[in-house]
Amino acid sequence: MSAKPGESGDAYRILDRTSLPAYLAEIPAVSDLLGPGAELDIQEIGDGNLNFVYRVSNSSDSSKSVIVKQAVPFLRMAGEDWPLARDRMRFEIRALSTQGELVPNLVPKIYHADEEMSTVVMQCLDDHIILRIGMIEGVRYPLVAEHIGHFMAETLFKTSAWSMGSIERRELMNQYTLNTDLCKLTEDFIFTFPYMVHESNYSNPATDQWAKENIHTDYEYKRDVLIFKELFVAKTEALLHGDLHSGSIMVNQTESYVIDPEFAFFGPISFDVGKVIANFLLCCTSHYHRSGGAEYRQWLLDQIPVIWNTFESRFLALWEQAGESTMLANGLLSDDEQSRFRSEFMMNVLRDAAGFAACSMARRTIGIAGVADIRDIEDLEIRSKLEIFNLKFSKRLMAQRKTLKTFDDLASLIHDNYSTPVL
Ligand code: ADP
Ligand code: SR1
Ligand code: MG
Questions:
Q1: Are residues 256 and 205 located together in one domain of the fold?
Q2: Strands (E), 45-131
Q3: Strand, coil or helix: what is 70?
Q4: Ligand 2 touching residue 191 (CB < 6 A)
Q5: Best mutation site among 185, 198, 373 for ligand 2, i.e. most ligand atoms within 8 A of its Cβ?
Q6: What is the pLDDT of residues 397-417, one digit of tens each?
Q7: CA proximity to 184, closest of 276, 269, 75, 92
Q8: What CATH number does residue 49 fall under?
Q9: Which portions of the chain are predicted below pLDDT 50?
Q10: Would you say the CB of residue 242 lies under 6 angstroms from ligand 1?
Q11: 41 and 111 assigned to the same domain
Q12: Total number of domains in the chain
């Protein structure tokens, strides 16, 4: 991947704990928040795959804190030999700001954005933890499912052609079309490499053998994955978060924040919905090993209808309230026709979300970027049983998606699958 326009500038340098104080001191808004001239505590807390993230706080008053996130010109998880355009931060900044207008209580506030330095300084969510970590530990978050459903409905409907006018929407799309390197990562690591022999794939002997016999040689499944790859590549339906999984959500008992929208681009609505569902399922699988009883698994499964129902009802309410848009002009459809159209639309989102969830479960199981829920299980045989369970369900979901008519059909499929003993 070659350097992009604006990437060769001399101003860019990789920040570290030594250079951060001087960098931040030059930004009045941040300096005021931390306390002008204050001594700073700085920790690198990034546990993500791509970037460097620092928590910076006033040494004598740790409640005065900010997060500094910087994109480096390579893929953090692979190292400097794997170049990755750092202009991904440009899209993260834009998405944080678009989402900040649509759902201000569900995304961190931006204090300072510096595209030249590929850096953002934002609200520090000190009272929250990453949802994935909480769910691995078996913690229940009573409101998170509603918050996720609400986030998706607001951000997806309000950037769709059912809400926006044609010209303003194309102008917004134009801000995201060149998120090239991250869309390419998704094309490769979600829709291609996991289904073939590829050097980047993860390896666990029994899982590898199963994948060789049941994934690499299954034409129908690989064709279906390609159908979803095409949907991802071609359908510019709404501004997606683009990487909406439990590692991109920070929570406590009353609040949720969606972070890390660097993969934002205009794509199919069902992509965000399917990814979220897959991550609750992956965690549920892990709890066959992590918790003795079925209670926490049930809690995880119970969140999926809450996410879907909140998403669907809010999306439809916004649609009913919307006026004329790119898609609709008064007089085109009667009230009955509109309502029929919306039902068919939601059914297709559901089916496609099931397909994207299937891809997501497979890539998190056999691709390079696994999830800690499963990958942190030390016993390789136990892990493999869970991995094969995930892969089998990915195939089942993919094969049966077209039979889904209502969310209850998906709920039954999930319930049936997760009623079987695994270990
Ligand atoms: P990456 O883009 O590399 O995946 P993330 O945006 O996911 O990076 O951030 C990595 C980690 O940094 C998160 O898992 C979380 O622990 C921490 N983090 C990120 N943003 C915030 C924030 N606003 N407040 C507190 N912690 C944060
Ligand atoms: C090499 S793929 C890295 C993955 O990490 C991010 O969180 C995205 O999910 C991406 O696919
Ligand atoms: Mg990220």
A1: yes
A2: 52-58, 61-70, 74-75, 79-83, 110-114, 119-123, 129-130
A3: strand
A4: no
A5: 185
A6: 999 999 999 999 999 999 999
A7: 75
A8: 3.30.200.20
A9: 1-3, 5-6
A10: no
A11: yes
A12: 2
Q: How far is ligand 3, taken at its centre, from the CA of residue 183, in Å?
A: 12
- Domain identity same for 173 and 282: yes
Q: Give, using CA atoms, the residue closest to atom 12 of ligand 1.
A: 46
Q: Looking at ligand 2, which residue's alpha carbon is closest to its atom 11?
A: 186
Residues 42 and 190 in one domain: no
Q: Would you say the pTM of this structure is higher than 0.70?
A: yes
423 falls within a domain: no
Identify the residue whose C-alpha is closest to ligand 2 atom 4.
Answer: 369
Backbone angles phi, psi at 186, to 5 degrees: -65, -45
Considering 58, 90, 123, which residue would you say is the last residue of a domain?
Answer: 123
Q: Whose CA is nearest to atom 23 of ligand 1?
A: 124
Q: Are residues 28 and 159 in the same domain?
A: no
Q: Which residues neighbour 61 within 8 Å (Cβ) at sequence distance 6 or greater?
A: 35, 38
Within 10 A of 392 (CB to CB), how many other CB atoms are there?
16
Of the candidates 123, 151, 183, which is a domain's last residue? 123
Question: Any idea what the CATH number is for the domain that residue 233 is in?
Answer: 3.90.1200.10
Q: Please give the residue range of the domain that contains residue 162.
A: 129-417
Per-residue tokens: 227: 């159908």
pLDDT in tens, 232-281: 999 999 999 999 999 999 999 999 999 999 999 999 999 999 999 999 99
Tell me the residue type at 176.
Y
At 62, give phi and psi (nearest 5°).
-70, -10
